[in-house]
Structures
1.
Amino acid sequence: MKHILVVDDDRVVNLLITRELQKRGYGVLMAYDPVQAAMTLTRSRIDVVIVDVMMPGGSAFDVIKRMKISTRLGPIPIIVISSGMTHEMADELTRHGANRCLKKPLDLELLAKVVDEVFAELSLNLLHRSNVPMPAAGDDGRVEVVSTAS
């Protein structure tokens, strides 16, 4: 089962997202602020994070920064949601490490589609990594890998 962490201070939004993703077979954990998100990330196996931009005690930028400095959490995809999402904000979030950005109010069908796409990309990336050739004996150990990931 794939596990998703939903981080939003709005308990109704958190619950709506959680129920929609659970209906689709995902395991979902909830957090209501960046501190609780950090604790959940360190204690649980999480495959994708969905996080609101503005919350008491911090923002999506704080969550992203904490995740990206960790070797274990860094590769986990991040979907950011916000009622104030603009193209400029989405660009900045992407530069910081977000994989997708969506505007609230959320279309739950679209969110589920984006989650499915992120998991498909994860699977594709794992497949590419598993097909990387190992250096031959006597090689200098360097392997050049051309990635198609965006």
2.
Amino acid sequence: MRRTLDPERTREQVLAAAKRLFAEKGYNATSINDIADVARVTKSLVLYHFGSKEALWQAAFTSSAAPILQLFHRYLEGDPSLRAKDMLRHRFRFLQEHPEIGRMLAWISLEAAPLPEQLVRLLPRIAAKAMSEIGESPLGIEPTMLTAIVLGAMDGWFRHRSLYAKVGDMPADEAADDLFLEALMKLLPE
């Protein structure tokens, strides 16, 4: 019996394998062959669907980050229900619920992985809008530095919270996440 091909299913298998491997091993240590093996397809099918490793990296990131990217667009379009502080909370919750994105962002900072095109286009605009809303913190930190501190703290929290739990008297659970987010929000002006 001959197996029928389902291009959409194959594409989704490849994308799922890529998301997993890029998050686990990073961009540089993941090969097209690795992705093909995990997806249980040929290398030529991976390349047929995505063209290149970089295009697959971009698709994996964009697919994983789709919900937060849509929220970023709504924020930039002026959705009145979204303010800078709300966006920071949403980003925190998104990283909490999607650890693969936090790992992919970590790999971007650790190696010569391509920046996701969506981030290149959106982040400067989001940062400018957020900084114009945030103003100076109660601690006297100017908006650009305050934004960098809060985003860096968020990223570091999700990258290292299991280590913090191992060396300190702090669980790596949702309650600890909530306490951390609450502390971060106190840095921001009302």
3.
Amino acid sequence: MHRVLDLDLLRTLVVVAESGSISAAASRLYRSQSAISDRVRKLELNCGLSLLARGKSGATLTPAGERLIVNARKMLALSDVVLRDLHAEQVRSELRFAVTKYFRPLALPGIITYLEEHFPQLRLRLCVQDSASIECETHSGNFDIGLSMAVLHNGYVTNLARGERRKLQRESMHWVANRSFSLSQGEPLPLIVLPETCSLQRFIGRVLDEHRIAYSIAHIATDIGGLHLALAAGLGVACLNASAIPPIAAPLDCKLPLPSLPDVEFGLVPARRGEPSFVSEVRHALARRLNSCEAN
């Protein structure tokens, strides 16, 4: 029997996987839970395999579901491209994308290329800035889509709207330095930091003060690129999330008696009320892309 995969059913499975439960997916898709369950069962019957493991804590993908969803995201993205090309869709509006300095600096060019390929008529303006300013300007109209970072630590959360964000990924945070870095006994810890407007840098100072670890500011970089150069030059130690650590540097977790660090969480800040439909489309495509990158 010739089997055809229904894109609407694939989209439902993707939303369930991203949401973590049937009920959460139903809310996002504006359908009842029973309707979502029926769609998933229909897709499972079509595939002849179980795709979701359902339990009290939610729904998780089975191994077959994990394999299918990778290609499902590709098929949905390709479908969007084909339809836009078929109807010669023209997106003339400018889209302003504000992103935190710490979000995958080495992968960011590829993400921009992805948006340009899938939205060829889009005029993209990228602004790299502090998470705190992104959060504060969420409803200001200064940007259309914002991506910020939160430090997940009791009593200290750098994000102002954490509960409302669309969570993308969680990463570990490390003390890092040039692979040849060494510290003499009794010498204050030389720090490489971003300006004081950076919430993460204020958090670092607070952690070191709480543990009574002497430190000095060896270098203040204006951006992540400058911080990477300072690390390469061996000027000192920095605090970075895993995806922002450059190849020249390595974690110091086992070399120096430094305080353990919490994880950080990236997410898209809440959409502004009444945002244009093309911005919503780009937002969903971006979230799919970033979740796909994380899975890979």
